């Protein structure tokens, strides 16, 4: 966004950290409970195909992601959140 400060144009970059809903979704997706993740998805889209897909995706992630993978995701999100330029 371009704003004018003292008559001069200045580029303004808003704090664009990751929204709370996305943070919560990632935490639930990487967490241990399939039911908690599916119930979170259900708050936004409550149809059987979406919920079945969410359950299958969560189960796949639980079976294939290592703890190191999950830690890498957490680290990336923390870096994005901390960077004022996102």
UniProtKB/TrEMBL annotation:
Keyword Secreted: yes
PANTHER family found in the cross-reference section: ABPA10-RELATED
Record-linked PROSITE patterns: SCGB
Source domain of life: Eukaryota
Naturally occurring in which organism (per UniProt): Mesocricetus auratus (Golden hamster)
Subcellular location: Secreted
Record's protein name: Major allergen I polypeptide chain 1-like
Similarity comment: Belongs to the secretoglobin family.
Keywords carried by this UniProt record: Secreted, Signal
Organism phylogeny: Eukaryota, Metazoa, Chordata, Craniata, Vertebrata
A Pfam short name: Uteroglobin
Keyword Secreted among UniProt keywords: yes
Originating gene: LOC121135990
């Amino acid at each position: 966004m371009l704003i004018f400060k003292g008559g001069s144009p200045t580029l303004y970059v808003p704090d664009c950290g990751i929204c709370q809903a996305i943070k919560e979704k990632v935490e639930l997706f990487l967490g241990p409970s399939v039911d908690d993740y599916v119930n979170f998805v259900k708050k936004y889209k409550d149809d059987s195909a979406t919920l079945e897909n969410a359950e299958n995706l969560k189960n796949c992630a639980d079976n294939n992601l290592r703890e190191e993978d999950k830690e890498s995701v957490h680290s990336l999100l923390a870096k994005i959140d901390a960077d004022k330029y996102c």
